[in-house]
Each structure stands twice: as structure tokens, then as C-alpha cells.
Amino acid sequence: LSRMHLIQVDSVQRWMEDLKLMTDCECMCILQSKPISIEKDEQNELILSSQYSTCDNLQLLLKRAWIISTELTRIAQKLEKNRWQRVHSMTVRVNCHVRSMINEYNMFIRNSSEETHQFEKLLIEKCSEFTAFTERCIQTEDEDILKSMKSCINETLTTVAQYFGQLIELVLTHEAQNLLRQIELSDSMYITETAISSLFSLTQEGDHLCRIIAKEGGVVTLFKICRQDCFRCLYPQTLRTLASICCVEEGMHQLEKVDGILCLADILTDNSHSEATHAEAAAVIAQITSPHLTFTQHLSSFLENMEEIVTALVKLCQEASSGEVFLLASAALANITFFDTMACEILLQLNAIRILLAACSDKRVVDTPYSRDQVVTILANMSVLDQCASEIIQGNGVQLLIEMLFEKSSSGNSAEVAACERVQQKSAVTLARLSRDPEVADAAVKLSCIPRLIKLCRSPTERNNSDSVLVACLAALRRLAVMSPDGLEDSDFQQLVKPRLVDSFLLCTNMEESFV
What we know:
The chain has 27 helices and no strands. It is mostly helical.
């Protein structure tokens, strides 16, 4: 039976391969938009049903665009290898996808611009020309002819890709404009909510779409919503969309132009707003102050509102009803401590260390390595202040930092593993900085910090083979060894403390190998 099944599948696949070369593009276009099977298999990304609801139309367009883009890349690869039969069959397929895409989006996009129609026409003509070129190539075996044809095909492929990119850009810009127009002009709460939801879906498709939305005034439009009390119920969704758009430089510039920081500060300090609204406002703050972004230097208005914002975020951490709310508020605080050192002094005055340490003992609020990563980041950045040590000791923070040295992923998920490494590294960094205070160093030694640091240095699996964790642990160990030299055995001192840091590092990175 299994052999029979294989033969049947093989026959169908062979028939479909032949069909691509034997039928006209127009026929293929009609066939292609009809689903052959509802079952998923490895080839089904190339067979898309056009029977989609209105809300899925953009997703269908983007999926179709992704397929065409992938196919064009694959054609270039096959062309390089002179695999003419494959080049032609794939060119026919791209032709079909382009025609289907244009037919589909013309059904749901109204009032397309003249420019869009011109690009549609140019693209279809160039695709037909492309198919005709590749068809001639499979009908000859003359190497000289094929060689001369290859440069023509390459040039045509480049032009197809260029027209295709410009057409997609125009269509997506048109759709972004329509959604923003709906948000600005509609009196209906339902239409506004639906448009914001669609806009958010667009932002999830990558930075390029966020740039399009920002250039079309998306940040300005959304902040208008956040300044109208009648739309309060839409604030969380609107702020979430803003956070996504502000991952690109264009979004940040727009935010600065419309005094977005002041609006966020007003929302965060207004106690009449829901916790969900405060949490999403914190998410926008976390996004715009991210240390990974290279374009935060123009956020001059942030400094003017920083004390208000930091105070509100500490309050949100203290009153958070869930892990998600705490994560967003603490992530914003962690980023702000990188953004400006004055934030650490404000946090100290607000008793933030006590609040954060108390939250860490509540598993309902701090329930993941991601949350602990934010807390230990704040502690590490605050530990440069001399007054920080006494606050840490009073809040039983030394024990918490040592517990963080044991952070392990429960799921094995790569993002969670990376978060655990950051927790280990930053807790070691914080201990190293705080141990300049004899009282902290003494507390750490009494809580068996030294044996754990030695284990992390000597056992690569304990630190998940992380070099950054190793360097931080070596630094912490050396600081504690100065304060409490009796806590180390001679072999540990000779290998981990006495040599130059780089020599101890090299010894530990090769340790697993040498033990074997």
C-alpha cells in the first residue's frame, strides 16, 4: 500500500511539473487560485487560496509578496548554475503569482493610484518578456546562444525585482494611508478600533512597514487618539501600535515632533487610567530608550520629564498585578538607567531597590528570567552609587544576587537561555561592584558566594559556555578574594585570582577540554 501511495504521489507531482510547461500563463493563473488540497505539505506555500476574509487580505498580499521575492532569489541562484529547465518553470510560477497578486489586491484595494496601475502594467509586461526569454533558452542547446541570453535574463530579472519592489511599496503605502484616514475621520469607535488593529498587524511585518507608517504620519495620528478622552478604551491598543512604530528612526523623529514624551508622562502620572494603559505606555518608554537603538540622542524632551516618568514606573512596579505589567515597567526603568545616570539617583531617592527586591520574592509578579534580567540590570547600574550598598544589605539583596548566580532555564528555549546568561553575568557584575564595601563582601562570603563563583568559572556547563558570564565571575571572585583571602583554596587562588585576567580566562575556557 505504501509503495502504491508513493507511486501515486510521484505521478501527480510529475504531472504537475509537466503542466507548468504545457499550459498558458492565463490558464495557470485561474488554476493557481483554486486550492487543490486543504492538507498541509512541504509544497503548500506555493498554493494559496484567494477565498480570504477582508481582514486577511493584507496578510495574503504580504504572503504572496514573500513567495515572489523568494522565488526571484531562487531563480537567480539556478541561473548562476545554468539550470535552464528549472529557471523556466520557476519563471512561469512567478508570472502566475504576480498576476494572482495583482488580481487579488485589486479586488480589495479601492481607488488605486494611476502610478500603481502603471507599475502593474510594467511588471506584467516584464514578467511575460521574462517567461518568453527563458522559454527560448530551454529550446536550444547552443552554448553561445545560452551565454548571450544569460545576460539578457539577468537584466530582465533585475528589472522585474525592481518593478515588483516599487509596486509593493506603493500598495502598502496606499493601505497605510487608508487606515490612517479611517482613524482620523471616523466617528465610529468600532471602525477606529478595527483600523488601529489592522495598523498594528502591519507593524508586525517588519521595520520597513513601520517606516512607511511613520512617513505617512502614523505617530501623529495615534498620539491624537491618546489625547482624546473619548478614546480611552483604545489607549492600550494605540500605545502598543506606537511602541512598534517607534522601533525605527522615522517613528522616533515623529514622536519628538508631536511632544510624545509629554503625552506619555501625562498618561503614566494620571491615576484614573487603567493598569493596562499604564503598562502599554511603559512599553513605549522601554522601546524609545532601548540601549540597542543608535538614534535616541535626540530625545531631549525625555530629560525634562524623566523624574515624573521614573516615579510613575516605580509605582507601577510596586502595584503590578501580573508578571507582564511588572516586566514592561521594569524594562522601561532598566533602559532609563542606561539612558541617563541621573535616573539612578532618582531611583535611590524613591526606595526603588527595596521595591524591586520585594517584588522578586513574589513569584506572581517576578516569574521569569526576563523579569529578573530587568531587576538585576537596574541593580547593576545603580551599584556604581556608594549609597546603594546599604540599601542592598537592608533589603536582603546580597542573597538574591547569589541566587541569581544559579539562574537556569526550565524550558531550554534559546531566548530564555540567553536571559539566564544575562542574569548570571549581571548579578556577578553587581556583586563585584558592591563588594568594594566590606559589609557587602562579608555578607557575600558568609552566603557561600565564592564557591558558586568558582563553580561557574570552572564548569562551562554551569554558565552555558558563556564567555561574558565567565569574565564577570572572574572579576567578582578577584574582588572578593581581596576582601576575604581565606575563602579560597590555594589551587583556586593560583589559577583564578593570581594570574592576569586574560590568562585565567583562557585557562577556564579550555578547562572542559583538558579534563577530558
